[in-house]
Amino acid sequence: MGSNFMTRTAIIHGGAGGIGAATAKQLSAQGFRLHLVGRDADKLAGVAGPLGATFTAGDVTDASLFARVMAESGFSSLDALVYAVGTINLKPLQRLTEADFFRDFQVNALGAALAVQAALPALKAAEATSSVVLFSTVAVAQGFTAHASVSMAKGAVEGLVKALGAELAPKVRVNAIAPSLTKTPLAKALTGNEAMAKAIGEMHALQRLGEAEDVAGLAAFLAGGQSGWITGQVFAVDGGRSTLRTKG
User: Fold this and answer.
1) How far apart are CA 237 and CA 179, in angstroms?
2) Per-residue DSSP letter, 64
3) With 70 as the cut, is the pLDDT of residue 5 above it?
4) From 26, 43, 131, 203, which residue has the greatest number of CB atoms within 10 Å?
5) 230: burial class by Cβ within 10 Å (0-12, 13-18, 19+)?
6) Sign of CA dihedral 123, 127, 128, 131
7) Given the DSSP bridges, would you call strands 54-57 and 80-83 parallel, antiparallel or unpaired?
8) Are 2 and 225 in contact (CB under 8 A)?
9) How does pLDDT run across 154-195, given as a tens digit for each residue?
10) Helices 98-105 & 148-167 angle (0-180, nearest 10)
11) Between 148-167 and 111-124, two packed helices, what is the crossing angle to 10 degrees?
């Protein structure tokens, strides 16, 4: 298990987002002290307040953010780091610009690496094995059109999981979750249209889109001590999208 149940600590980047906020609620219910990170201070305050959490407002494209997060969290030891930050930038290859590729890589992959780097002393100071939870996408395992930039960036995240899982063992566990389309504010452009959302949902074996809680349940499990013998893995939470075909 992690350190004392009532004193376990977690930092959640993307803590005001759909999956990040749902993960925060589940970890809070498990007794974690939380520090949330996101771009919108008002949204962070709305999530953090009821949970008794602290927060830092800032953008992961600002490399100075990560040291500030560690300072403002006040955590000298850290049981879990969750990087629930991402982009959904869907364009055909011909329309993608150099700036698109750089931003998707910076937000999804580089930000994850810098977040772990800044938190590493605190992660190593945890009483028992600590945990890092990153996020990929079903589009890495199951190729989709118009996903070149985000798939490339999230593919780098999966590579990071393997590299850090080896490098940081046995003290720090590193895993990732690869969701399919989930009904969150980030995905509103795709899920806000009822007909489109229904059509995409029916492409999944379970005949629906994901909910934030579907993904947060695994994120909270991986962050906690019950997953203490799991590292270097990428878990699909995708309604069967990456592996199953029930029609045709």
Assistant:
1) 5
2) T
3) no
4) 131
5) middle
6) negative
7) unpaired
8) yes
9) 999 999 999 999 999 999 999 999 999 877 777 677 777 788
10) 30
11) 20
Q: Which two tokens stand for residue 73?
A: 């969290």
Q: Which residue has the tokens 């030891």?
A: 77
pLDDT of residue 11: 98
The pair of three-digit structure tokens given for residue 178, joined into one six-digit string: 């690869």
* 59, pLDDT greater than 90: yes
Cα gap 138→27, rounded to integer Å: 24
At residue 3, does pLDDT exceed 60?
A: no
Predicted confidence (pLDDT) per residue in 188-197, tens digit: 777 777 888 8
Determine the average pLDDT of the residues in 108-124: 98
Only one residue has tokens 């800044």, namely 118
DSSP H/E element including 196: helix 194-201
Give me the residue label for tokens 């800032």.
58
The number of C-alpha atoms within 13 Å of 234 and in the hemisphere containing its C-beta is: 22
Question: Using alpha carbons only, how large is the chain's radius of gyration in Å?
Answer: 17
Residue 110 is given by DSSP the state I
